[in-house]
Every structure is written in C-alpha cells, then in structure tokens.
Amino acid sequence: MHAALLDGDTLVNIFANGAEIFGKATGIGFAVGAVSTFILGKRSVAAKLIVIAIPAFIIGIITPGFINWMIASLRDANTPENIVIPLCWVIGIVGTIAVSVFAIVTGFLPTIVAFKRNKQNRKLIFLLNILLSIIPVLGWNIALFMAFMDDKDKTATKVKL
After folding, report:
1. Is the pLDDT reported for residue 3 higher than 60?
2. DSSP structural state of residue 132
3. How many Cα atoms occupy the beta-carbon half-sphere of 81 within 13 Å?
4. Residue 81, pLDDT score
5. Is the pTM of this model over 0.85?
6. Whole domain around residue 78: which residue ranges?
7. How far apart are CA 161 and CA 154, in angstroms?
8. Residue where a domain terminates, one of 96, 117, 140
9. Which of 53, 69, 109, 114 could be cross-linked to 30 through a Cys-Cys bond (beta carbons 3.0 to 4.6 Å apart)?
10. Does 81 lie in the same domain as 12?
11. Phi/psi-derived region of residue 41, left when phi > 0, alpha when psi is between -120 and 50, beta in every other case
12. What does the H/E/C string look like for 7-60?
C-alpha cells in the first residue's frame, strides 16, 4: 500500500482542501444571500447571514495553512510516528465528517427555511434547491431568495408536485 495512505497525509489534505473550498464558497454564498434578503427588506436575516459569511470565508482561507502547520510542527518536533499517524487519521476523519455535515445543512438551508416558514411553494424550493445545486452560489441563492419572499396570498391554490 502507498505510504501516503498509511500516514494519513492524504486524508488530512482532503479535509484541508475541502474545508478551504467549502469555507470560501459558503462565505460567498451567504454574502450574496445577505444582499438578496436585504433587497427583500429582511434586514435582520441579512445581518445574520453576513455574521455567518465572514467567519466561514476566513475559516476557508486559514484551514489548510493551519492544518499543514500543525502537522509539520509535530513532525519537526520529532513527535513519534505512532502519535502523528493516528492524529492525522483522527483530524482527517473528524474534519471530513464535520465539513460534510455542515455542507449538507447549509446546502439545504433554503429548504429548511421554506418548510419552517410553511411556504406555499416549499416543495418547489426543495426541488430547485436540489436541481440548482450544480450551480452552487447562484442556485442556492435563488432558492434562498424564494424561501424568504413573502407569500402573496395565503389562500392561493397550491401547486402540487
């Protein structure tokens, strides 16, 4: 078996790179979402989205460097491999699971909001959330925008999907 797979470096790099990509994309997505909710007049929601956007983007920027520094420091300090290797595996597995769970929850935030607000078109928002997820920031923000829009008429006929 390849040595990089055994020492956990590969998994740590997957986590670090995934955290970087997801952190930056989430930060940008939440910032664009804040602008769209601000346009809808939902200023408190926009403020909350900005409060999430800034740290998400910063975490995305600093995670790879921090992880690499931490592992390099352990190796430079001549920490025994029987400590470094399991630590790499723990960081890689726990980090990857955490990023994956956070990605799923934030990815479906428009759907969660739509169902929590009992939107008339919540099934459509869910469908858009899934179908437009191939265009991460744009698709997510379209669904989020729709989730925060006020229903025009609560007695209107619901569209069945």
Report:
1. no
2. G
3. 6
4. 79
5. no
6. 3-96
7. 18
8. 96
9. 53
10. yes
11. left
12. CCHHHHHHHHHHHHHHHHHHHHHHHHHHHHHHHCCCHHHHHHHHHHHHHHHHHH
d(CA 121, CA 115): 9
- Residue 148 and residue 140 in contact, taking contact as beta carbons nearer than 8 Å: no
**Domain shared by 135 and 72, yes or no:** no
- Distances from the Cα of 92 to the Cα of 6, 8, 33, angstroms: 12, 7, 30
The rounded distance, in Å, linking the Cα atoms of 129 and 139 is 7
Tokens 């007695």 belong to which residue? 155
**Position 157 in a domain:** no
The conformation of residue 158, written as its DSSP 8-state character, comes to: P
Position 103 in a domain: no
Amino acid identity of residue 158, one-letter, is K
* Rounded Cα distance, 24 and 19, in Å: 8
User: Side chain identity at 120, as an amino acid letter?
Assistant: Q
User: For the chain, how many structural domains are there in total?
Assistant: 2
Q: For residue 133, what is the DSSP state? A: G
Structure tokens at 23: 């952190």
Tokens 């995934």 sit at which residue? 18
Q: How confident is residue 1, by pLDDT bands cut at 50, 70 and 90?
A: very low
* Cα 129 to Cα 64: distance, rounded to the nearest angstrom: 29
